[in-house]
Amino acid sequence: MGRAEKVTVRAVAERAGVAVSSVSRVLNDHADVSDGLRARVLAAVEELGYQPDPVAQSLRSGATRTIGCIVRDIANPLFGDIVKGAENVLHDAGYSLLVSNTDGDIRRDVDYIELFLRRRVDGLLLSLQAEDNADMIAALRQASCPLVLLDRDVPGLSASAVLCDHFTGIVAAVGHLVALGHRRIGLIAGQPVIRASRERKRGFDEALAKAGLPVAPELVRLGPYAAEFGHASTLELLDLADPPTALVAGGIQFTMGSLRALHERGVRIGAELSFISADDIDWLELHDPPISVVKRDHMRMGHLGADLLLRTLGGEAHPCFEPVGTTYIHRASVQPPGVSR
Amino acid sequence: MGRAEKVTVRAVAERAGVAVSSVSRVLNDHADVSDGLRARVLAAVEELGYQPDPVAQSLRSGATRTIGCIVRDIANPLFGDIVKGAENVLHDAGYSLLVSNTDGDIRRDVDYIELFLRRRVDGLLLSLQAEDNADMIAALRQASCPLVLLDRDVPGLSASAVLCDHFTGIVAAVGHLVALGHRRIGLIAGQPVIRASRERKRGFDEALAKAGLPVAPELVRLGPYAAEFGHASTLELLDLADPPTALVAGGIQFTMGSLRALHERGVRIGAELSFISADDIDWLELHDPPISVVKRDHMRMGHLGADLLLRTLGGEAHPCFEPVGTTYIHRASVQPPGVSR
DNA sequence: ACTTCCACCGAAATCGATTCCAGAACACTA
DNA sequence: TAGTGTTCTGGAATCGATTTCGGTGGAAGT
Questions:
Q1: Interface contact flag, A4 B142, Cβ < 8 Å
Q2: CB-CB contact of B125 with B309 (8 Å)
Q3: What residue ranges in chain B does DSSP mark as E strands?
Q4: Is B165 exposed, middle or buried (0-12, 13-18, 19+ CB in 10 A)?
């Protein structure tokens, strides 16, 4: 196995017959290095197959070339796409990505923030579970590295952010439902401690207001981002005396739970209940009927998040914001109400 | 922001009026520490809020408490689940997880292996894209840290592995098709450079052989793990003069591409063509008709992989192997042939 | 009273790289 | 020839922790 005698800068220096400082100067191409010395050092480096030890470099420089990424559930394709997009960009820039899994537990947000900061990451990519957690904000204030929020808004924190325009997509989606004649429209979304939830709710309200329709409180269910909440809420909505004729699921977990509930109840989607999923996953198109969605580019979110980090690491002092658009895509799951036969 | 003056072991020593070595001894509870000294040091640690710097510890100890994980596509829920399972276990054991994304490019396997080894990870969790790549094997031989293969088999390499019993599941699945009367059964699977592909093919062959049926070469398509291959292969199979009456997709990407092709062609799954997906994703149950699957516990794979790593890090010298079972689950996508009306 | 031993603690080396500082070698000018 | 600069190079300090080694003081043994 690894019988590689660990070749250090000292070994290179010995081999080349120069001082270690000279080796370092050559490798980091500092000024004041003669051609002869450079050649000898590079030859020795080549012969020994020397590669500097990143751990030692980190100790000396204070930079670890590592980024910490905090998400709720890495197995969720939404976050998977984000992480993938970010990792691609960061890898090309010479950074590695540490991942986490906070799994619905807000305290784990704090734990991972502290863990990653202790590990001296060069930056944090954050999809937090709540924006108002005091412990979390306190932990982030300790950070001396750049922070990038993914579709989150933590007031008073100096951080860049990728911000999705949920509003436009939802307004278009609900507007379409209204235009088709729907009057009782249900919404299942996350709690307002997350920007995405607030924006979706705001778009929902706005679309109804624009149509002069009242918001029926019993049709709006805000809860934790988990399939089970989508499932339970859907059953509740179906059981109302005056149930909705259309339903918007504001998040992919809700979509999953909601569809499961509709299948269990044998509800004919489109015919009996129009359905829209905010957030697109490819298989929704293969559903029968295909599910209308509000789409955004998840990988691009990760990509832009990484860009923002790199920009700050590159010296940009002020927080920057990158918008990501959303589009409503109509599919057969949305039909005019009362086409029940 | 971070106005925290960086509290080091030296600061603690000064505060407590002792030598740095004593502080270290207290913190790593070595022997030869008097109660008085321990108390003074711990008090100073408390007052200053001292936390040792992991980078310095890594340089000194050679251990980084970091594990590298190499997968093809972190956005794929299969790998997402694996990574999640592994991260949970490793986090609890004090390790952090570096992720990668090799994205169908075999050279990136090698790149990431070398990158992670250079970064001195304490272990590697590997879902390689090919088992016979000489460069990759050479790179892995350089490793002086434990290796764990995820559903892979690289002969001659000293590594533990999580091994899925694809064989049993596929035999049951194809056996069921045969029992229902299917005679022409198609298979779309990965290339034999990956154990999973080989085992699925072996199970497929075995099930047919057991039934005394010949393997029709034109019905077996082995190619790269990508939805597009599943899509194209499915179209080809449908266009055969004597097309299959049942189709097994050996991998979730193939399932996705294959289902898309069947939808495009308007094939009535179950009635016109029975369909089985090897690897389960939750939405397959919501498909119309629900898709039969060969299921395995992905998160458990990650969990066991992490356990194997920890076991080796804990001193276990010999490679260990952990089996993961597969189960065939019948759903309505599988019907007797010729129920076309 | 003198050795021996042990418990305890501090100084310094170490991990591997980078960088500051000082000095050597050489050229050029007055 | 002496003096002044350049240009290049080596030694040593540094990053922050761990660990070896050696030394001190006190207690026990003869």
A1: yes
A2: yes
A3: 66-70, 96-99, 123-126, 147-150, 160-164, 185-190, 220-223, 246-250, 274-278, 292-295, 321-324, 327-329
A4: middle
Residue listed under structure tokens 């609900």: A174
Query: What domains sit in chain B, N to C, each tagged with a CATH number?
Result: 9-52 (1.10.260.40), 66-163+298-324 (3.40.50.2300), 166-296 (3.40.50.2300)
At A184, the pLDDT band (50, 70, 90 cuts) reads: very high
DSSP code, position A263: H
B87 touches A: beta carbon within 8 Å: yes
Tokens of A67: 């980024």
Does the pLDDT of residue A3 top 50, yes or no?
no
Instruction: Express each pLDDT in A96-132 by its tens digit.
Output: 999 999 988 999 999 999 999 999 999 999 999 999 9
DSSP SS3 for A324: strand
CA of A18 to C1' of C29 (A): 33
CA nearest to A269, candidates A244, A242, A295:
A244
Partners of A76 on chain B (C-beta within 8 Å) are: 80
Count of A-B CB contacts under 8 Å: 133
Q: How far is Cα B37 from Cα A154, in angstroms, rounded to an integer?
A: 44
What is d(CA A101, CA A122) in angstroms, rounded to the nearest whole number?
19
- Token pair listed for B211: 């039934």
Give the distance, in angstroms, between residue A15 CA and nucleotide C18 C1': 20
| pTM of the complete model | 0.93
pLDDT, tens digit, 9 for 90 and up, residues A124-169? 999 999 999 999 999 999 999 999 999 999 998 999 999 999 999 9
The verdict on A191 touching B (C-beta cutoff 8 Å) is no
Element (H, E) at A7: none
